[in-house]
Amino acid sequence: MSAKQKAAERGGAPWVSLDRAAAHLGLNAAQLRKTLERRATRAADGGTEAMVDGVRARKFGRLWRVRFSEAWGAP
């Protein structure tokens, strides 16, 4: 089973790196990181998350990972 199939079964797209997500959105990584940090909130499980226009981001350690909604398509 491929990674995309596993992600679809879990109910979402795979997490992508901040650099790749920024390129998909037409931003540079610093702009996207700053936007996410401004909108960051504490999740119920203690993690840090941000949601911006159908783009969900979560911090894993010190790195942001981004997941796009269906409206954005896959990067």
Main sheet characteristics? 5 strands, antiparallel
DSSP helical segment count:
3
Structural shape: globular
Helix content: 25-40%
Whole-angstrom Rg: 12 Å
Order of helices and strands: HEHHEEEE
Number of strand elements:
5
Structural class by sheet pairing and helices: alpha+beta
Organism: Polyangium sorediatum
Protein name: DNA-binding protein
Task: Describe the protein.
It is a single chain. With 75 residues, the protein is of the alpha+beta class. The chain has one domain (14-72). It contains three helices and five strands; from the N terminus they run H-E-H-H-E-E-E-E. Strands 1-5-4-3-2 form a five-stranded antiparallel β-sheet. Helix 2 (18-25) crosses helix 3. Residues 4-9 have low confidence and may be disordered.
Structure in a nutshell:
With 75 residues, this protein is of the alpha+beta class. The chain is 36% helix and 28% strand.
